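Demo today. Your pick:
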Amino acid sequence: MAREVKFKDKMFPLTGPQLKAGDAAPEFECVGAGLAATTLASTPKKARMFSVVPSLDTPVCSQQTKKFDEAIGGMKDQVACYTVSLDLPFAQGRFCTAEKIANMQNLSDVKNHSFGKNYGVLFDGLGFPLFSRAIFVVDKNNKISYCEYVPEVGAHPNYEGALAALKAAV
């Protein structure tokens, strides 16, 4: 049975696997800073957090990015943290400049949706590409140490759980 996520009072299935702690983190190719290709293999070999949001231009996604950006400020040399969305890299950059986001890096999966498909966060049957909300913490050995698929798009993730897992992965 496919996993489903609530979006605008309807349930939609997600494409891809349902990952869990202990799984190997899947490879992906997103567009990062300066439009460079960014893959799991090209990220630093340290604790990493991937904060997945539907769009930075929505209130919960904006709050999620700001909250994590502020929370990781004291650990930024020990971790690499990313906001992953289908927003264009230009929109991501505009948001981060306007909101003074300094510690979270952006990854845009607009090119081939490989993050969405490989991490099981891409909506299926919605009519346009969109991610569900999720958090993945990956350790230096590319193992997932924390995974949360938020069951409703408009709900917040477990910030405390994700940050505790990120600190433990350091």
Observations:
- Helices lie at 59-71, 89-99, 114-118, 159-169.
- The CA atoms of residues 138 and 163 lie 12 Å apart.
- Strands lie at 4-7, 10-15, 29-31, 37-39, 47-52, 79-85, 104-108, 122-123, 134-138, 144-149.
